[in-house]
Design goal:
Length: 271
């Protein structure tokens, strides 16, 4: 059993009609649990509906940093009605994105300040709901978004655990996440030939400090690079990481599933 800890089944790149087949292909490849993440107001209900329709799927709800300029100031009422839903596994995807330029009418300073404000308020919601949080960071150069997100996390790390998803950095940056009590997750980037920093982190990360993900429909692993990604491809990333860490696929699956079970809120069997 493998868990895809981060995918976007509500993406426009997946039609509603093909979701059952996508989930079936995942199961055929040993991916028996998927976490689908909302990124904005428009897809919260879509992701929740997919989670309710499919027992293999749970959802996270949040506002992506690239969507903060299109989201109302008091975004909390978009999320709070769903916080007690047993199919809501965590808060997210939220975070900071300093890679993309500010939208028209915004300065980078104001855009990034709004992202930081939204991230802090996501942490408040997570704390209130006793949920953990999924963080996105991305920089064009340097580590500004990562540094700022880690600073905000430090104010909540005693009550909320964070996973820094799609982790692209070297072991030194991962060590800072671990020191704060957080986790990281690896995408298909770990299968790319030139992803030396990520592979170094894969090899150095302590057992049970990371999860697996696809970030589908993005970042397809080798041998599907350049094609639309889907949860079934988690297996390719898992096989590559197991080889890099010199353990069996079953060992890796057991370790990463334990992390997912400790991090996410999954429905009980009775539910």
């Amino acid at each position: 059993m493998i868990t895809d800890s981060h995918c976007h089944l509500g993406s426009h790149k997946f039609s509603p009609e093909e979701i059952p087949d996508i989930i079936a292909r995942a199961r055929e490849n040993g991916v028996t649990r998927m976490i689908t993440l909302a990124t904005g107001e428009d897809d919260i209900s879509t992701n929740l509906q997919i989670a309710h329709d499919h027992p293999e799927v749970s959802a996270c709800i949040g506002i992506h940093p690239c969507d903060v300029h299109e989201t109302r100031d008091d975004f909390e009422p978009l999320l709070t009605p769903h916080l007690s839903d047993p199919k809501v596994a965590a808060i997210g995807e939220t975070g900071l994105d300093y890679f993309h330029p500010a939208p028209d009418g915004w300065t980078n300073e104001d855009y990034h300040a709004r992202q930081r404000d939204f991230l802090r308020r996501h942490f408040e919601l997570a704390k209130e709901a006793d949920l953990n949080i999924v963080i996105h960071t991305r920089d064009k150069s340097g580590t500004g978004s990562f540094d700022d997100a880690l600073k905000i996390y430090a104010d909540y790390s005693d009550s909320v655990r964070a996973v820094f998803h799609c982790f692209p950095g070297p072991p030194q940056l991962a060590a800072r996440v671990f020191a704060a009590g957080g986790l990281i997750s690896f995408t298909g980037i770990a299968t790319f030939k030139n992803a030396h920093a990520v592979v170094d982190t894969v090899k150095a990360a302590p057992a049970e400090s990371f999860m697996l993900e696809t970030d589908a429909p993005y970042l397809s692993p080798t041998p599907h690079r350049g094609k639309r990604c889907e949860p079934a491809f988690t297996r390719h990333t898992a096989e590559a990481i197991a080889t890099q860490r010199e353990i069996s696929l079953n060992q890796l699956a057991d370790q990463t599933n334990k992390v997912a079970e400790s991090f996410f809120r999954f429905p009980s069997i009775e539910q």
